[in-house]
Amino acid sequence: MSEYFRIPTTGAFGDPIDENPSGVMMEAGYRSVGLDWRYQLFQVPAEGLEDGLKGIRAMGFAGLNLTIPHKIAAIPYMKGLSKSAELIGAINVVVVKEDGLYGENTDGKGFVSGMEANGISLKGKRIVLLGSGGAARAISVECALAGAAEITIVCRTMAKGEELADLIWEKTACIAKAQLWTSGVLLPECDILINATNIGLYPDTNVPDICYDCIKENMIVQDIIPNPAETPFLKKAKELGARTLDGQSMLVHQGALGVELWTGRKPDIEAMKKALREAF
Hints:
This protein is of the alpha/beta class.
């Protein structure tokens, strides 16, 4: 009998995670390379991370994604990190090997790939980034490496923002600075504005507390939130004349990189996009 019934499993840890649409997209990616693999969502609170990571090794998971609040907290449990993950200081992909867990970061690479797929070059651009968490770190570092001229990190905790700005200054040719995020904060002039927080993630209907007069016509405004595709933030930016890009493009491109890391095969990005669109 050649048929077997144990199906390789991957998934994601996060809290919250119920509204994350990654599963349909990732399984479409597996199908596109001829694999009958599964991708499941697991609501794992911060205090359950260590037990959860032990569990994926014990149960023979093929790989794992990490989202809020685990992208930085998971690093001490990794046996090794990729060069980009080490530089960024956050991980969103775990590769399971016989001798342990290895961390990788595809968030920033997925963001840059999504921008390029929309015909946008980051070279010479002035960028304002809202947030200084794991996703913000990955995006800012990869944007700097892609040739951005200047990045301003608008953050609630200046120590985190300044540490990230110092990292970009030290490791890239990009100018970087941190700015304290106060209520209605005035943003510097920029070409691209990015919301790298979870403000507006379904069912939250809030928008980032910034001065919206700073959003100008033809500015590019990107949200990293995939659900809903058009967040209240993007809707408001569009009304102000900005060109808006949703978080689904970044999600698909970083997801495709994860599929390749776990399976060794490059998935069909268009098939993954189609599955994600159909989910909404």
